[in-house]
């Protein structure tokens, strides 16, 4: 009996402690004490559809031209093609990146693996969006783009992974020939004057509306070989990958970005 009483007291104690931790309101406190009126959030006109750019977005591709993009390797006008309102990867031209550099932002982009794509694993429909392009070729932080519809590969390299760091929470892939959406929130890393990491990069991402990266904290740039590490930068272009595999090229449309504080 004594044991049972003791157990009851032990079990009840945490709840009791929690109840006691709730503070009572300060005498004389008013509702107005906790109401904030400034600064007022800026008014933004939403896009006509959930995927159309809000009024404060920078449109990076709207089907017309590649004026916002350059080749990563030589900064010449982007060598990908525009056809029927779509941006199509030109593998010979290599990666392309935005003329403008960014720090923190919200990014929307739509991509499509061609119908009846060929290849397997990483060699099927591979591209990628580098959330910060910190140098030539594949330097930076890649959110993987590839065909992950019934196409197994290492899970931290499938579509919507932070390449070789973080597998997506779910596989929300539509089949080849259908459009996919990415909605991404990127918080850039910050660095001290001596190059030490002050705050790491973080990413939240949705693939076709499903949460795939939930405030994931990166351990550095995404590397093909070796362990990730950070390289100081202040702002960087957004880069799209022309992957070297022989499968037919992907298309992109409707790309816009909203800079964040
Ligand atoms: Mg890739």
Description:
The chain is mainly beta and 261 residues long. It has a single domain, classed as Exo-inulinase, domain 1 (Jelly Rolls, Sandwich). It is built from one helix and 15 strands; from the N terminus they run H-E-E-E-E-E-E-E-E-E-E-E-E-E-E-E. The protein has one helix at residues 2-21; strands spanning 58-61, 69-71, 81-83, 86-88, 96-98, 105-112, 127-133, 140-145, 179-187, 190-191, 197-199, 202-207, 210-217, 239-240, 251-259. The strands form three sheets. Strands 1, 3, 4, 6, 9, 12, 13 and 15 form an eight-stranded antiparallel sheet that branches. Strands 2-5-14-7-8 form a five-stranded antiparallel sheet, with no helix packed on it. The chain is globular. The N and C termini lie far apart (62 Å). Mean pLDDT is 94; it is low at 5-12. The structure holds magnesium ion (MG). Magnesium ion binds at residues 126-128, 142, 144, 241, 243.
How do the strands and helices of this protein lay out in sequence?
Blueprint: H1 2-21, E1 58-61, E2 69-71, E3 81-83, E4 86-88, E5 96-98, E6 105-112, E7 127-133, E8 140-145, E9 179-187, E10 190-191, E11 197-199, E12 202-207, E13 210-217, E14 239-240, E15 251-259
Antiparallel strand pairs: 1-15, 2-5, 3-4, 4-15, 5-14, 6-9, 6-15, 7-8, 7-14, 9-12, 10-11, 12-13
Bound molecules: magnesium ion.
């Amino acid at each position: 009996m004594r044991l049972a009483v003791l157990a009851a007291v032990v079990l009840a104690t945490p709840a009791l402690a929690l109840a006691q931790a709730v503070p009572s309101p300060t005498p004389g406190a008013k509702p107005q004490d906790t109401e904030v009126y400034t600064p007022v959030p800026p008014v933004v006109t939403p896009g006509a559809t959930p995927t159309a750019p809000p009024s404060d977005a920078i449109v990076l591709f709207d089907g017309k031209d590649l004026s916002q993009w350059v080749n990563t390797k030589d900064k010449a006008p982007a060598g990908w093609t525009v056809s029927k309102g779509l941006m199509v990867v030109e593998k010979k031209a290599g990666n392309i990146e935005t003329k403008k550099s960014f720090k923190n932002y919200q990014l929307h982009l739509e991509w499509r693996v061609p119908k009846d794509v060929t290849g397997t694993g990483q060699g099927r429909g591979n591209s990628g969006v580098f959330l910060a392009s910190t140098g030539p070729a594949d330097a930076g932080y890649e959110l993987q783009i590839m065909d992950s519809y019934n196409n197994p590969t290492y899970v931290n390299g499938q579509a919507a992974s932070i390449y070789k760091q973080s597998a997506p929470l779910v596989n929300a892939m539509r089949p080849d020939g259908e459009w996919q959406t990415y909605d991404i929130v990127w918080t850039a890393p910050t660095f001290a004057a001596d190059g030490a990491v002050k705050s790491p990069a973080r990413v939240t991402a949705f693939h076709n509306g499903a949460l795939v990266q939930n405030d994931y904290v990166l351990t550095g740039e995404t590397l093909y070989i070796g362990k990730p590490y950070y390289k100081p930068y202040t702002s960087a272009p957004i880069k799209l990958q022309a992957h070297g595999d022989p499968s037919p090229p992907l298309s992109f449309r409707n790309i816009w970005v909203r800079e964040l504080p």
